[in-house]
Description:
The protein has 104 residues and is of the alpha+beta class.
Amino acid sequence: xxxxxxxHHPPAVKEWRLSLYLSEHDPDTTARIVLDTGDxxxxxxxxxRRSPDDHDVPEIxxxxxxxxxxxxxxxxxxxxxxxxxxxLGAAEEESPVPLWLTRE
Length: 104
């Protein structure tokens, strides 16, 4: 017979719902992300603009705008976590390596 190890809890499973909306108004593509954690809702936006000299390939604008919106969402989540940690008295520390390039 096995016994649960004291202090060991089964893993908690959470589901966060992320909706990504893309809209194209040539030459611009806009991405909007809504993340519902069940406790809060976060929203990020980003754009991509096609140069007049580039080929018209809508998928590229979708990928760039969505990727940039996901990066922006990541920044929002990290900021929220840092704020929560500071509220609990944690010392403020900076990451030694950037999580993403500023050009993205």
